[in-house]
Structure formats: structure tokens, C-alpha cells
Amino acid sequence: MSTLIEVRGLTKRFVKDETGIVALRDFGLEVEKGSFVTVLGRSGCGKSTALNLMSGLLKPTEGTVSYRGDPVTGPRTEISYLTQSDTLMPWRDVRRNIEMPMEISGVSKRERREHAEELIRRVGLTGFERHYPRELSGGMRRRASLARMLAGDPETLLMDEPFGALDAQLRTDLQLELLRLWQGSGKTVVFVTHDIEEALLLGDRVVVLGLLGRRVLDKPIELSRPRDADELRVDPTFVSLHREMTEALREGAR
Ligand SMILES: Nc1ncnc2c1ncn2[C@@H]1O[C@H](COP(=O)(O)OP(=O)(O)OP(=O)(O)O)[C@@H](O)[C@H]1O
Fold first, then answer.
1. Residue 33 and residue 187: Cα distance in Å, rounded?
2. Of 137, 184, 178, 139, nearest in space to 159 by CA
3. Across the chain, where does the E strand assignment appear?
4. How many Å lie between the centroid of ligand 1 and the Cα of residue 122?
5. Peptide bond into 236 cis (omega under 30)
6. Which atom of ligand 1 approaches the CA of 209 most closely?
7. Is the model's pTM score more than 0.90?
8. Where is the ABC transporter domain (predicted)?
9. Taking CB atoms and a 6 Å cutoff, what residues make up the pocket around ligand 1?
């Protein structure tokens, strides 16, 4: 395996009303190509800031991010980022939002439409193709954003709590869908969550962050795939990993 993303010594300081706020301090991470890394941390520990920096959307105060050895100085076409905030185009309906990345890469109209229909089905939005973002619930907008991300067939996916706002059933469905899509694809995923179970269900590796993005734990997850949430809950390895993550989150808050 080779390192695809390399983050070194990232510090981000924001200035708010003439006061400096440090969101992340000396954060480092290496992500192997083709791996699924989940980043677990409590609210406010700097997870979104870390992804913003890794995606090139935000410039670090100190430190570097490189992608396949090249410095990341702005957004790149190989990296698709599903942010926490809504980035759907309000003037396009669901289908045309999802078709957008394919439009940009020159996919024919017929092919675009077919693929968009398929993605709409996968994320459970059938029947809402002609709805505009303002006519959707928050969870539906998240799903439309996810479908749009997948439509671009990115090499690397950075995902910031994509399923946080969804009900339990939808969440499980989309977790499985994402795993199905990822497995064997060679794609690299960095997935941020504050949910231990989700981190363990999805990741090859879980990185637990504490305050200011301090890496409290970095652990390979050797649970066989496909993983089934119901079966996992009674698996002794899962139970012990869960306990270890709980402790790491507690330690990270200190
Ligand atoms: N643009 C900004 N200006 C000022 N402070 C910011 C800004 N963005 C983030 N912060 C601060 O940086 C810290 C980390 O925020 P960040 O959003 O990265 O955390 P998080 O771990 O993603 O939280 P959550 O899980 O709640 O989304 C917080 O204290 C936040 O208030």
C-alpha cells in the first residue's frame, strides 16, 4: 500500500473579533491508498477543520497537506468533499444537481440521466427527482449531496458526518451502500463521525481525535467484511474495541 494523503504538522488558527482561536494544533495523518479511515472525535475537536484543510478548501496556518506527493494548495478534481453544510444548487432540482459532476466531465445526456436515476434509487430519493433543495428535508438534502458526490466517481472521498442527520434505518442502508460502493473500488475514504459504532462498522482504521485534533488512538480494525451491525454488537472483538474507543474519547476530552 502507498501513502495517498500525507498531513504534517497542521495548525489552524482563526481570528474572531480580534481574538485568536486555535482549532487544530500540530495535526498529522497518513492515509493509505484504497483504505477507509474513520476519524472519530467529539464535537468541536477539530474534525471538520482537518477535512477542510485536507480538501484544500482552507489554508493552514502552519503545516502541509500532500496528495500523491504533491502539495495541496486548493481543491483538486480527484478529491470530492461532502461537507457538513449544504452545497446543493438551489436553482437545480435533485436530478440536475446529481447530474452536475457528469455534465462537467462531458458525459452524454442519456448516460447522465440513467446514472442519476440509479443513484437516486440507491440513496432512496425516488419520487423526488423534480424537487428543488428547498422542498426537501435536511436528511434528503444530505442524500442528494451524497448521490451528487458519487456521480463524480471521485478517487478520494472526504466525508464529514454524512449520515448524522438521518434516521436509524436510512443510516444503516446508506452505510451499507457506501461500503458496497467502496469495496474493491480502490477508492480512498476519510470519514468523520462522532459515533463509535459507525466508525467501527465502516473503517479499516479508526483515528480518535481529542481536543485540538490531538491523535489519542490510531488503530487498525481487523473485523472481517462484510460487517453486519447486529452481529457486530455481540462480537467480543467489537465489544472490546468499542470499550477502547469510549476510553480514548474520554481521554481526548482531558
Ligand atoms: N471559521 C471559524 N472561525 C472561528 N472558529 C472556528 C471556525 N471554524 C471552526 N472554529 C472553531 O474551531 C474548533 C473546531 O471546530 P470544528 O468544526 O473543526 O470541530 P468538529 O470536531 O468538526 O465539531 P463537530 O463535530 O461539532 O462538527 C471549534 O472550537 C470551533 O468553534
1. 7
2. 178
3. 3-16, 19-32, 36-41, 62-67, 70-71, 79-82, 156-160, 188-193, 205-209, 215-220
4. 32
5. no
6. 21
7. yes
8. 5-236
9. 14, 16, 21, 23, 41, 43-49, 194
Q: Please, where in the chain does CATH 3.40.50.300 lie? A: 1-78+160-254
Extract the C-alpha cell encoding 105: 466531465
Could you tell me which CATH class the domain 1-78+160-254 is placed in?
A: alpha beta
Cell output for 84: 457538513
Residuewise pLDDT in 10s, the chain (254 residues): 699 999 999 999 999 888 999 999 999 999 999 999 999 999 999 999 999 999 999 999 999 999 999 999 999 989 999 998 888 999 999 999 999 999 998 999 999 999 999 999 998 999 999 999 999 988 899 899 999 999 999 999 999 999 987 888 889 988 998 998 898 889 999 999 999 999 999 999 999 999 999 999 999 999 999 998 889 999 999 999 999 999 999 998 88
Among left, alpha and beta (phi > 0; psi -120 to 50; other), residue 208 is beta
Distances 101 to 143, 151, 225, 242 between C-alpha atoms, Å: 16, 6, 31, 38
Give 155's DSSP letter: S
The atom number, within ligand 1, closest to the CA of 23 reads 12
